[in-house]
Design a protein that fits this description.
Layout (H helix, E strand, L loop, with lengths): L2 E6 L2 E12 L2 E8 L4 H14 L4 H12 L3 E5 L3 E2 L3 E5 L2 E5 L1
Antiparallel strand pairs: 1-2, 1-4, 2-3, 3-7, 4-5, 6-7
């Protein structure tokens, strides 16, 4: 199973384990570390708004996430420019 380490602002916050690919999205299990707690509320907010009807509020929440320095590092790749959604123990991203 392919894995990546998720970094936010150069801090290791968890591991993404590939579950399946639905191009262009990579769906993963997310094993968070305690260091993710600092950012969890931002992702929780975005996740709730993603399922709602207020696109403007969701875009604002997404912009908060985009302001973070997010990257994922795998065995043979570094991905810096990505969109990621995290909800509980699941995550999906595209780049």
């Amino acid at each position: 199973m392919k894995e990546w380490i998720l970094y936010i602002n150069d801090i290791d916050v968890g591991i993404l384990k590939l579950n399946n690919i639905d191009q262009p999205w990579f769906h993963c299990f997310f094993e968070k570390k305690d260091t993710f707690d600092k950012y969890q509320s931002v992702f929780d907010k975005e996740s709730i708004l993603l399922e709602g009807d207020d696109e403007e509020m969701w875009m604002d929440a997404l912009e908060e996430i985009e302001k973070l320095d997010i990257k994922i590092i795998g065995e043979d790749e570094n991905i810096n420019n990505l969109i990621i959604h995290i909800s509980g123990d699941t995550a999906y991203f595209r780049f």
